């Protein structure tokens, strides 16, 4: 499936190993997650278009560049918050929206309990931040809500993806490019990615 890019970098592979280790402390987990997020942000930014502008150096006027489109980051609550600061460090002019999803216990389908994005999302580049692409249900739902509200060019940034989630995204949103640090083997019987790294939100915020 041509919707997936795995960031193949020795430093990323080192930090994924830190994340997988069950004995990694939350502070070290957050640090490694942040470094991986920097690398993913750089890979996604290769798709950005630029406008030429004039810039005056101490010696002369020359050509510089600015991003052609506004960038909107949309972390999926709660775990997606862990990736925001790294992306903002790389794209400081980005705006940040939020989307919260929970499972409806009657329909078993994801539904949003919180949604807030900038009004100009339709003319922006949207990057959804969601560390674990497992079944793909939450990510697919997030993009459905975003598209209904006018989102255009969009990307998904995650730490680890399962083949099942990649396929669901391809089936429901073939236009969305996924960037991840690792493509793992499969989902287990309870829907966790294996070998995986456990619950990214719990390990980031120390709530396990």
Topology (SSEs and partners):
Layout (H helix, E strand, L loop, with lengths): L3 E3 L3 H11 L5 H20 L4 E7 L4 E7 L3 E7 L6 H7 L4 E2 L1 E6 L6 E7 L8 E5 L2 E2 L3 H12 L5 E8 L1 H10 L4 E7 L2 E2 L5 E2 L5 H6 L3
Parallel strand pairs: 1-11, 4-5, 4-6, 4-8, 8-10, 9-10, 10-11
Antiparallel strand pairs: 2-3, 6-7, 12-13
Helix pairs in contact: 1-2, 2-3
Terminus-to-terminus distance: 34 Å
Structural class, please? alpha/beta
Share of residues in helices: 25-40%
**Structure summary, number of beta strands:** 13
Order of helices and strands: EHHEEEHEEEEEHEHEEEH
Rg, nearest Å: 18 Å
CATH architecture label: 3-Layer(aba) Sandwich
- General form: globular
CATH topology grouping: Rossmann fold
How many DSSP H or I helices? 6
Overall domain count: 1
CATH class: Alpha Beta
Q: Indicate the mean pLDDT.
A: 93
Question: Biggest sheet, in brief?
Answer: 9 strands, mixed
Give the low-confidence spans: none
Tell me the fraction of residues in β-strands, as a range.
25-35%
Question: Can you offer a commentary on this structure?
Answer:
- The protein is an alpha/beta fold.
- The chain has a single domain (4-49, 68-205), classed as Rossmann fold (3-Layer(aba) Sandwich), CATH 3.40.50.
- Helix content is 32%, strand content 31%.
- The chain has six helices and 13 strands.
- The protein has helices at 10-20, 26-45, 84-90, 137-148, 163-172, 200-205; strands at residues 4-6, 50-56, 61-67, 71-77, 95-96, 98-103, 110-116, 125-129, 132-133, 154-161, 177-183, 186-187, 193-194.
- The strands form three sheets. Strands 1, 4, 5, 6, 7, 8, 9, 10 and 11 form a nine-stranded mixed beta sheet that branches. Strands 2-3 form a two-stranded antiparallel sheet.
- The model has no long low-confidence stretch (mean pLDDT 93).
């Amino acid at each position: 499936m041509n919707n997936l890019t795995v960031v193949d970098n020795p430093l990323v592979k080192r930090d994924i190993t830190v994340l997988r280790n069950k004995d990694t402390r939350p502070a070290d987990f957050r640090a490694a997650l942040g470094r991986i997020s920097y690398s993913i942000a750089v890979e996604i930014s290769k798709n950005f278009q630029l406008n030429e502008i004039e810039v005056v150096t101490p010696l002369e006027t020359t050509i510089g560049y600015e991003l052609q489109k506004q960038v909107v980051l949309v972390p999926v609550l709660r775990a997606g918050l862990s990736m925001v600061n790294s992306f903002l460090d790389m794209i400081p002019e980005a705006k940040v929206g939020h989307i919260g999803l929970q499972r409806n216990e009657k329909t078993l389908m994801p539904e949003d309990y919180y949604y807030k994005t900038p009004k100009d999302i339709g003319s922006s580049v949207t990057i959804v931040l969601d560390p674990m692409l497992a079944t793909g249900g939450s990510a697919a739902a997030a993009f459905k809500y975003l598209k209904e509200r006018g989102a255009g060019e969009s990307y998904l940034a995650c730490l680890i993806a399962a083949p099942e989630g990649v396929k669901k995204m391809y089936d429901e949103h073939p236009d969305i490019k996924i960037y991840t640090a690792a493509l793992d083997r499969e989902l287990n019987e309870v829907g966790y990615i294996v070998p995986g790294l456990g619950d990214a939100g719990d390990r980031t915020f120390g709530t396990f």
